[in-house]
Design a protein that fits this description.
The structure is a single chain. This protein is mainly beta. It has a single domain (about 5-155), classed as Beta Barrel (Lipocalin), CATH 2.40.128. It contains one helix and eight strands, in the order βββββββαβ. Strands 1-2-3-4-5-6-7-8 form an eight-stranded antiparallel beta barrel.
Length: about 160
């Protein structure tokens, strides 16, 4: 799964920086909390080097799952909170080599709900060859204080105020 050039962010920071969706399994077996209504809407990626506006649309699929469209690519995402940290498991729904694979993101929403930060878990810390959810969780937990756990931060601003 490749993210738009402006995301050389959540992805080259959700996936481009990371090189794609890397894992055959989500970080948690099932969603750890319901959809957060504050995440629903259209978000603009902050990229001062590219005048083209990159839009990420986030919609509610069901009580615990989001559908995300970015650069004409489709993803499924859900909360995978783990070790006291807010994570998202994001699954590519695009045909190709990354179809149905996952990438993990740490995320944070500003107090006013207008700015979203996403940081992809680095495949240098959690290698693509990681074979199980428990191994991925063990590596993440052991590296929570390691600044190399995450790739570059991707910043988004709400397109239309709530």
């Amino acid at each position: 799964m490749k993210l738009p050039p402006v995301l050389a962010w959540l992805v080259a920071v959700t996936c481009a920086c990371l090189g794609g969706c890397n894992y055959d399994f989500p970080l948690t077996a099932k969603p750890t909390r319901p959809v957060d209504g504050r995440l629903i809407g259209n978000w603009v990626a902050a990229n001062k080097d590219d005048p083209k506006e990159e839009i990420m649309s986030v919609r509610r699929l069901d009580d615990s799952t989001y559908v995300v469209v970015m650069d004409h690519d489709l993803y499924r995402a859900f909360h995978s909170d783990f070790a006291g940290t807010a994570f998202l498991s994001v699954q590519s729904l695009q045909p190709g080599t990354d179809d149905r694979k996952y990438v993990y993101f740490g995320w944070q929403l500003s107090a006013d709900g207008e700015h979203l930060s996403l940081k992809g878990v680095s495949n240098k810390v959690v290698p693509e060859e990681t074979k199980s959810r428990s191994d991925a969780q063990r590596l993440i937990k052991a590296n929570l204080a390691n600044p190399k756990l995450y790739g570059d931060e991707m910043l988004f601003t709400r397109k239309t105020p709530r």
